[in-house]
Amino acid sequence: MRFPIWIRLAAAALLALPAFPWGADGHRLIAEIAQRHLKPEALAEIQRLLPPGETIASIAPWADEIRPQRRESAPWHYINIPIDAARGQWQPWCPNNECIITAIERFAARLADRSLPAAEREEALKFLVHFVGDLHQPLHCGDNRDRGGNDVPVVFRNRPTNLHSIWDTPLFREAVARPGVRERLLVKAGRRELSRASRGGAGDWVWDSHRISRTFAYPALPLERPAILGDEYAERAYPYIVQQVRLAGLRLASLLNRCLAGAAR
Predict the structure, then answer these.
(1) Is 205 a catalytic residue?
(2) Quick one: which H or E segment has residue 8?
């Protein structure tokens, strides 16, 4: 099938644009979920570290906003693990020890270190809130030698874009806009769900995202390029997105509680 020239040119231009995982709306929702599961001590310490009126939801998109000024932070948003890689070691795909997993570990340690200046811990908090969200976007962990789908042209809802971008924003927005979804995502988790979600750390959680890339995000694509995606792909993607957003919120809460519970003075 030959696509109109405007579609092919627009798709090619969009491939070069940087992608921002989940978009600002997704990051804020993940932080809202986390906020509802913070221990009082952790919440108090967050309020002490952030400026008056700020919350982890309001600062959740910050790490994307400062990327142009903090170019060294670009590799901290993702890890390109090939979709044909078996679950296990992620280190081979973390060049120079600079990737989303090491960033989460590094900033969690800084946030927990009460000997550091408050400004340094505040920055660590901002990065950490964002990167835990990023880790749960499947196309920021799974890769088919195409920059996590950034080099895969698609047309979604008649709009030329790329595979990564539709997982960032339009699929997320459609999934969350369905009746009752946002409300279910914000429901307080029971002890069993919290315990199950928060087991392990970033090096374990990354494989949930990788599995979705390997088993659905890429294999469900039609063969033509640009790939024309519509209701069938979207309907199958929604449950994965809801699952990952919920997990990201609960895991962020668990990590912040580990770093901060008991830290407030």
Answers:
(1) no
(2) helix 5-15
